[in-house]
């Protein structure tokens, strides 16, 4: 007689129900969805053309015609915030993709091999980590010139050691487990074990870290654009808008308030979303239901 034990697994509907009972997840999801919707809508429509200069309308206060007011060139700030959202999201998304695509395999490989290979990769990782995104962007800009592509490369390089560390730490916690020993006994290679068993078990950890790095990528892009190293005029950017507003805070404070609020709300929403995902997918949280 074969003993068969059914271990209940949480269904998708169960996870979904739990998600919408989590206030942090709901708040972060709603905010993030609104920002994404605004960014996507900007590809098809904005209240005004962001490249059109109307000097006669410069520094107008918020009104029915211009909900967020206008800047020193007469451009509609709401339209610029919408277009700036898609630029910031695109830069951060691609940069996180670069960091995850390179860093996760490196970290998982280091954990699988161990020994001198692990040590060498982690010391190389520390070397890259010593150069923050801003310094990397300055060096890249000095060679290739400023631009959104160079900002993506700089932020992406900075993200590589972050994901490598997270993937390595998560993988090292999985390798001593019994099911890994069973996979080894079955004759599976380290690569097979990593792909089939280790990476699926650290996917939640990587997802949460990806959300955090996405929020940090938004901040990094804004900082680089503020210094003139990110998206170049006439393409709007939240950081560039803050730079243009710094000398006009008394005359037109709305020039800084609205792009600043856009950055704060976006980063806050992503952080709440990450915290909510961590709570929902945390096994300890499931057992305490």
From TrEMBL:
Record keyword Transcription present: no
Alphabetized Pfam families for the sequence: BPD_transp_1
Subcellular location, record wording: Cell membrane
Membrane topology: Multi-pass membrane protein
This protein's UniProt keywords: Cell membrane, Membrane, Transmembrane, Transmembrane helix, Transport
The keyword Thylakoid is assigned to this record: no
CDD domains: TM_PBP2
Residue span(s) of domain ABC transmembrane type-1: 85-274
SUPFAM superfamilies linked to this entry: MetI-like
Transmembrane segments: 24-45, 89-112, 124-145, 250-273
Family: Belongs to the binding-protein-dependent transport system permease family.
Name of the protein in question: ABC transporter permease
Organism from which the protein derives: Mesorhizobium qingshengii
Lineage per the UniProt record: Bacteria, Pseudomonadati, Pseudomonadota, Alphaproteobacteria, Hyphomicrobiales
């Amino acid at each position: 007689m074969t003993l068969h034990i059914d271990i209940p697994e949480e269904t998708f509907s169960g996870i979904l129900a739990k998600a919408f009972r989590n206030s942090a997840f709901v708040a972060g999801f709603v905010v993030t969805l609104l920002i994404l919707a605004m960014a996507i809508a900007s590809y098809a429509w904005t209240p005004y053309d962001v490249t059109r200069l109307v000097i006669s309308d410069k520094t107008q206060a918020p009104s029915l015609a211009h909900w967020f007011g206008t800047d020193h060139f007469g451009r509609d700030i709401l339209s610029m915030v919408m277009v700036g959202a898609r630029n910031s999201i695109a830069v951060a998304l691609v940069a996180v993709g670069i960091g995850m695509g390179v860093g996760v395999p490196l970290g998982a490989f280091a954990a699988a091999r161990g020994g001198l290979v692990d040590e060498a990769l982690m010391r190389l990782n520390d070397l890259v980590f010593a150069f923050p995104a801003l310094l990397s962007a300055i060096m890249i800009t000095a060679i290739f010139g400023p631009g959104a592509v160079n900002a993506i490369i700089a932020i992406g390089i900075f993200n590589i050691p972050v994901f490598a560390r997270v993937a390595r730490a998560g993988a090292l916690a999985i390798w001593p487990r019994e099911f890994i020993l069973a996979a080894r006994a079955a004759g599976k290679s380290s690569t097979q074990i990593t792909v089939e068993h280790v990476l699926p078990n650290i996917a939640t950890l990587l997802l949460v870290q990806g959300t955090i790095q996405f929020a940090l990528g938004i901040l990094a892009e804004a900082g680089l654009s503020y210094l003139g190293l990110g998206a170049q005029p006439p393409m709007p950017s939240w950081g560039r808008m803050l730079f243009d507003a710094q000398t006009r805070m008394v005359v037109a404070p709305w020039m800084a308030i609205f792009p600043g609020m856009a950055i704060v709300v976006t980063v806050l929403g992503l952080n709440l979303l990450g915290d909510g995902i961590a709570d929902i997918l945390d096994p300890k949280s499931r057992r305490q239901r």
